[in-house]
Protein 1
Amino acid sequence: MPREKPVCRDMSHNTFGHLFRVTTWGESHGPALGCVVDGCPPGLRFTLEDLQTWLDKRKPGQSRFVTQRREDDLVKVLSGVMPQDDGSMITTGTPISLLIENTDQRSKDYGDIAKRYRPGHADFTYDVKYGIRDYRGGGRSSARETAARVAAGGIARLVVPGVTVRGALVQIGKHKINRANWDWAQVGENPFFAPDPEIVPVWEAYLDEIRKSGSSVGAVVEVVADGVPAGIGAPVYGKLDQDIAANLMSINAVKGVEIGNGFEAASITGEENADEMRIGPDGKPVFLSNHAGGVLGGISTGEPVVARFAIKPTSSILTERRSIDADGNEVDVRTKGRHDPCVGIRAVPVGEAMLACTIADHYLRDRGQTGRLK
């Protein structure tokens, strides 16, 4: 059945955060994309390299295991800072506008699916909601949008003193890391952001097979924030873990999020799950475990904040799948173009950015509400 006549509807909900607010804009095959960061405190010093280092982790074309689209993802700061003589910048407290140009679009790759709905994509849902969709790489629904989030995450990392946010890939398909081998120093030494060096050749062989077959596979990413002060977050509807879950869930292709033990907590006893406490040598509380992932009652405990999210297999695959088109015809769809065989790899810096932004927002909210934090 043909579609109803398109009705003009606005596409809202491009902003997340409360005091530290991020609005992203742009499409996969547009001239550029970027974001506006509002609510960043004044007086924070940074360099362009401080932002670029995170974008370099995410950018495509860095190994045979990710999309071969070639984008330098060079970030430009257009507002909200005062340039310094040494080349650094200082935030002024006004909106910070960040720009990333698209330089390697191949829109012709998508001509065959201009009217066809790709299974697993947002093609059908965008069309039915808005009456129009950008078929060139998915437009606004493309993971290309996440480059702007990573840039915003670079700003967020400046906000909370002493906090370190790191991420790692812990599972590809059915192949999981051995947590006994966890070494953060290994994450930057392989193309998978793997903390276990022994899993790297396993993933290499597995993804080579997946890639050559024209298919794709899912993954699990773990993100950890160390140094988060105790007491940020709020009860009931302003929980820290609630916002972490929502912001991680907003990442393209994420289908599940867990905090701390997550779903494993359903299979253990209360004795096993409880994070017991004692008084440390300095007279401060010490947790003997961190099954809660650093959050109790929606408020941070001072332990590392730990979250994991599951990424579905990349929906753009070369294998033909059954679908329909905009005119109501049954069709077979084979997606051309350059795509990640496992989009979970480049989701690692995106997850880091979203966790950093969430913690920055809650830190500023707590500072404004209680005045405890400086």
Protein 2
Amino acid sequence: MPSPATSQTGPSPSLGGRAGAGQPLLRLIDVHKRFGRNEVLRGITFDVQAGEVVAILGPSGSGKSTLLRCINHLERIQGGQILFEGRLVGYRADGNGLKEEREAAIARMRREMGMVFQRFNLFPHLTALGNVMEAPVQVLKQPKAQARETAVAMLTRVGLAAKLDAYPGQLSGGQQQRVAIARALAMNPKLMMFDEATSALDPELVGEVLAVMRDLAAEGMTMLVVTHEMGFAREAAHRVIFMDEGLVQEEGSPAEFFGAPKTERARTFLARVTGA
């Protein structure tokens, strides 16, 4: 597999390093991702500042979910660079090029990036409390008493204080997704990423998950949110990024994007999803 350093338009490996004052929390520079001959990401560049909520919108197949998976190195990129707090994600400088980082180092960085997927992926044999405690105990090696205290606090934060001892099969889809959010929060991440977190839910359950996400946004959590929920993007995001065909077609404030989209592709997309 060619490393990102082989990208002809990619930046020098020397850009990797600790972020200084005013540096973005997350930086993507000319990121490319291919599956065989299909180039899913065709040169993605943008920054995310600490405390910022960025909504990523676009039609199905535009590369949004793949982008999130590249950010925490669940997918390997073929060109460009991703930097988190100034550190290369998934790679390290090696001479004049880049070499894939060791799995232990990748895992350490992933701990700082919470990820909430479409599917909840809870352990069915563990209670809500047990699901949230699992990673702090097994990954962070926290004492069980400390992990339990954190888990109770996180489940309370997402409105599930009364469901600590409930198993996933006893919870609604919305409640299960809120457990998944609490599980991610229990790792004390610096960035939370949501990949269509409400798309697998019945319509009447969507609101309770969006309410938790709005609360996190209001508390100053840095969030990168792939969503088809236009209301959330309009009300909770600081910035909207519109993707199509593996490219950032447009970005701006919600007022700019929803009020006066600059591109015909964005106007067509909004007309279809809003019915306007």
Protein 3
Amino acid sequence: MTSTDTTRLTGATAAAALALGDDALILSHRLGEWAGHAPVLEEEVALANIALDLLGQARILLSMVGDEDELAYLREERAFRNLQLVEQPNGDFAHTIARQLYFSFYQHEVYGELARGDGPFAPLAAKAVKETAYHRDHAEQWTLRLGDGTEESRSRMRAALDALWKFTGEMFQPVDGQGGLDLAAVEERWLAALTDVLGRAGLDLPQGPRTGAWAAGAGRQGLHTESFGRMLAEMQHLHRSHPGASW
């Protein structure tokens, strides 16, 4: 998926594009951090491909709002509207897979609903839903392998699911401009799918609160976790160090 010339959005619809675009951009960068560090060569390729899919989505969505490079590399931390979930550090491989499991199942449902509508996100969503189906399957297969593997892999996967669970509530808070997206239905399907996958992996759905991460103001309002600032500085360093540079 490549960036294309699009009509610039305004108001609430632009804010919705920014939220979706920032989710994809930040998670793409996090997955890119695995380059050279993935546990096996095949996974190096898989994570890179997912990261590139997300980057392609981000470019289109950000270009709906303004200049994609300026939005990615020149905004300050408080101007980003991504979910706190996607900015969480990679941690061990189980943490990365738990983050992917939660987000890819959510993103696949969101794009599926948007693709069925007639709003400005429908063309993008119709293409992206095919990509997210692969992302979801990748996370599902690794969850099954880790949960139904050794006691060590099961323990790490359980710990990762528990640690990231508190960030999942924010995904289902309404965002103005998303064109009648039924988040209650998305959440219901998301929970049902997670319950099924975790059950087959011999794991339980975490039972802790899912609201703590957003109750005091969350990523959608520009409030981010401590690790985000360090990640953003790394992501923006080259562009800010050489303003106006071209290859």
Protein 4
Amino acid sequence: MNKIIDVTELALRDAHQSLLATRLALEDMAPACADIDRAGYWSVECWGGATFDACIRFLNEDPWERLRTFRRLLPNSRLQMLLRGQNLLGYRHYEDGIVDRFVDKAAENGMDVFRIFDALNDIRNIRHSVGAVRRNGKHAQGTICYTVSPLHTSETFVEMGERLVELGCDSICLKDMAALLRPQAAYDIVKGIKTRCGEGVRIHVHTHSTTGVTLVSLMKAIEAGADCVDTAISSLSLGPGHNPTESLVAMLDGSGYEARLNKSRLQRIKDHFAALRPRYQAFMSNIHGVDTDIFDSQIPGGMISNMESQLKQQKAENRLAEVLLEVPRVREDAGFPPLVTPSSQIVGTQAVFNVLMGRYKVMSSEFADLMLGYYGKAPGERDPAVLALAEQHAHKKAIVQRPADLLQPEWEALSAAATALAGCNGSAEDVLTYAMFPQVAPAFFTSRALGPKNLGAAPDVAPSGTGVEPGAAVPLRTPVAYDVKLNGHSHRVLVTPVGA
């Protein structure tokens, strides 16, 4: 009898985050949900990561309403999110009370599986989130951020897996953000955790496809005992994205393993997103095929695009090659942190500064905090000279304790600040939105009543599954302004079309 391999589908979160800059509108995802819900996935990742930020920054969409909508549309599915440990979905650490409230509200609004990671693999920054998830009776998945450096070996990752099991995690995820996970390493780490912690420990494996080797890595992880792997429907896969769901299904055929997914449902999901993807061409990643240079630079595609944007703003696009050489040096100075949000942005920005201004002549406050331990403990020793510069820049000393232990309760202050804003509805969800993104939330609260934006270009014909007659144009829900005079007074009114 074949061993069943579970699959997590990424189309509703990481797939479009990696390929389409997280711009996919909820109304374009909703028609595929009925097929996704019945395709046989173990879980459906649909929230967290950059989606919360993109919703309020670009799409004028309430991320909590997105979660509630997915809960309604996917009644038979485990909903899954990516949570940055003590950072939650923001870019700083939050005190434990905020972590508790966020997890409580995410669970209450429909989240089932919380994949919890820390950018430095500092277990101390994961512990409280895991406890909050388990207190809510939900699935806490502890995450190992895979990276490559002189300090990182298969054994170090196995040891971290052991510590996550001791923490009480319901499952362990091996998360490969940059497609660096080679097949043998995948086998060794999964086998090592299973041997050390017992066959009953549930292991999930997440990879990207950028280097072209990681579908093989998934197969080796499965042979080593992995219980679940992440994939994306083929029409939202490859490049800096993920391996195709259908390819995994075909690969397992005849192998003694089986992913019991409904192929006709997969076909309809594929067709739906294939029709939508051209509309988002403006947000498409420039990486279309395989990029094995990442094995040397270890720089994820999204990090490269961010650095390109920074250089373009300084009219220094021709210096990208220098920046790519500087990133590994900055990473070594900082103690070899994995390059994942927010450490990837912090290291990348400092590398840009170093190339344009001279090494550490200018230092971002975030990089200073990274050096000084305010994001957690780095895997290795930090360069003493750069550490001294960081202390001078930040006017504070390095710390060794868990960063959140230095934070004071802040719910009351955040609540007062949020509820004073125009458009804030006073709910705990709105306060948490403000807490995550205090610079972006005020404008979102003001414009929320106008409804979500769809940034996809209007297609010539209706995509499949939208409920629109084939061949009909699909109007976008872009607000149109009208001047209206009522009782002698002029008013500017924005009207959002509801679609066909």
